[in-house]
Amino acid sequence: MSAWPPRSVGVDPATGKEAFVVARSGGFLEALADAHALRSAAALAVVVGAVLEAGKASDAELAALVAPLHSALEECVGIMAADGE
Q: Residue 61 forms beta bridges with which residues?
């Protein structure tokens, strides 16, 4: 049996620590993690859009956005693939 990777379900406002779960496919925790991932990706898209619209970011600042964008895109694609199964 292979272990699923831990997925974030958000940050505890009291401690500031990020909470992770290992969710069963189709379960409540998976739906919670999916919703968190989609909200995070939407927020990231707004930030990146604002940076691009301003047009004043350096190459280093733009490069710093690549890894979080890739991670968000990869998670969203994983969610869509799981929905298709």
A: none
